[in-house]
Design goal:
Blueprint (H helix, E strand, L loop, with lengths): L2 H16 L11 H8 L7 H8 L9 E2 L10 H16 L7 H15 L6 E4 L2 H11 L7 E5 L4 H14 L2 E5 L6 H11 L4 E7 L11 H10 L3 E5 L11 H4 L3 E5 L11 E5 L17 E5 L4 E4 L13 H17 L1 H19 L5 E3 L11 E6 L4 H10 L2 E2 L1 E3 L6 E5 L6 H15 L2
Helix pairs in contact: 1-13, 2-11, 4-11, 5-11, 6-7, 12-14
Pyridoxal-5'-phosphate (PLP) binds next to helix 6 and helix 7.
Protein name: Cysteine desulfurase / selenocysteine lyase
InterPro entries: Aminotrans_V_dom, PyrdxlP-dep_Trfase, PyrdxlP-dep_Trfase_major, PyrdxlP-dep_Trfase_small
GO molecular function: lyase activity
Length: 428
């Protein structure tokens, strides 16, 4: 079954199943949350219980697809509503730039860069399009990518290939050997290579690619590197400067737990003049004159923003970042990894299960992917949905597998629940 058809049938199947007995809980303010969370140690189960209570996910529903879409805590939804209400009371077409820059400061903090290098975009796909379309690439120029990229990377690159004749070269990620990925990548580099485009963590097997080593190799060879970080910030600490990448993007609505339709793009300061802004308008410019045929772009990554915004979404994203910072990104990473690791270690013991996530622990993240010898991936996903467990089918790279994501609202009971159902399937 094609992925689109499969997702349609999932939508039908899940709609009724999602909302019974979801109890409305009162939200607590971000200040209150910060105060409460700081009174517990993260090794205390109350710490994670307090976090779990901040989400509207029904107690009897096991949500294991943050890699697809995150749930936002009540406080984020509240912030969006509050800001939307203000806008409806006193409609103001121009967003408050002072508040906007504060959001960017928080995003820059998460990325490890300057706020001037951040553009607020609608999703990771938009971030990718801005760079892939804006880079000065000519016919015959080559781009290296993995066979495990998301459609959000593949489609803009293919579009550029069709339009301008750039050439795409792929390598299969080596899931066993960290250095193997560098070797595979290096073999594809020629005199015409200009850009390396890879997922920082792949959407397929949740594999973390060796970001620092890839960036170093690219710099040694004089190439640009784009790390697609849709699956990263909010799951683990990030430092784009330390990696040495040229471009980085993420979704606000996955691991960052922000409102839907938010994203962040990083363009290294030195590259701001390199990427031609293609979709532009009010806010992109620092002055223009039609009479004099003059146009000057903003000196910062604001040049990639344009037109009327929905600022409530981005103020909500800021609150989501505050929420994660109150927990501590290191603690989030430790928690998510511990759950994924507990799942992985049991999963590899189950007969009929083939685990596709990396064998080398350094590669593993909060997403684990598997398939089964006795039952197809779509049947596994549907069966789990019947048991009120939401995972994600993986058809990219022809894997025909199932991906399981663990985030702050998950706990050991979720791990036990999905393992027990997979064991049932393995015996069927
Ligand atoms: C690696 C990767 N890149 C990009 C995207 C697209 O993200 P968005 O929907 O925010 O554009 C995804 C979504 O799952 C992804 O996994």
């Amino acid at each position: 079954m094609r992925r689109k058809e499969f997702l349609k049938s999932m939508a039908f199947l899940t709609f009724g199943a999602l909302f019974p007995n979801s109890k409305k809980l009162d939200y607590i303010s971000i200040e209150n949350f910060k105060e409460k969370i700081s009174s517990f140690n993260s090794s205390d189960p109350k710490f994670w219980k307090l976090i779990r209570d901040q989400f509207p996910i029904p107690k009897d529903f096991t949500y294991l697809n943050t890699g697809g879409l995150g749930s936002s805590p009540f406080v984020v939804a509240h912030k969006v509503k509050e800001e939307t209400d203000i806008l409806d009371k006193y409609p103001t077409p121009n967003h408050d730039l002072e508040k906007w820059w504060k959001v960017k400061e928080k995003c820059a903090d998460i990325f490890g860069c300057d706020k001037e290098e951040i553009a607020l975009v609608s999703c990771a796909t938009e971030g990718i399009n801005i760079v892939v379309n804006g880079l000065p690439l000519k016919k015959g120029d080559e781009v290296i990518l993995t066979t495990h990229e998301h459609a959000a990377g593949n489609i803009p690159l293919l579009n550029r290939a069709k339009r301008d004749g750039i050439v795409l070269k792929t390598f299969e990620p080596d899931a066993k050997n960290w250095v193997g990925n560098l070797e595979r990548l290096e073999k594809l580099i020629t005199k015409r290579t200009r850009l390396i485009f890879v997922s920082h963590i792949t959407c397929t097997t949740g594999q973390r690619l060796p970001e620092r080593e890839i960036c170093k190799l690219a710099k040694d060879k004089g190439l640009w590197v784009f790390l697609d970080g849709a699956q990263v910030p909010g799951m683990m600490p990030v430092d784009v400067r330390e990696y040495g990448c040229d471009f980085y993007t993420t979704s606000g609505h996955k691991w960052l737990l922000g409102p839907k339709r938010t994203g962040i793009l990083y363009v290294k300061k030195e590259n701001l003049e390199l990427v031609q802004p293609l979709t532009v308008g009010g806010y992109s410019d620092a002055g223009y004159s039609v009479e004099k045929n003059e146009l000057k772009f903003q000196p910062s990554a604001q040049r990639f923003e344009y037109g009327t915004q929905n600022p409530a979404l981005f103020f909500g994203l800021e609150t989501a970042i505050d929420f994660l910072n109150a927990i501590g990104i290191d603690k989030v990473w430790e928690h998510d990894r511990a759950l994924a690791e507990a799942f992985y270690q049991e999963l590899i013991k189950i007969a009929n299960v083939e685990v596709l996530s990396p064998e080398e622990e350094n590669f593993r993240t909060a997403m684990i992917t598997f398939r089964m010898k006795n039952i197809t991936y779509d049947k596994i996903v549907s069966y789990l949905m019947e048991k009120r467990i939401r995972v994600r089918p993986v058809t990219e790279g022809n894997l025909m597998a199932v991906r399981v994501s663990f985030h702050v609202y998950n706990n050991e009971m979720d791990v036990a629940k999905i393992l027990s159902e997979i064991k049932n399937l393995a015996q069927s």
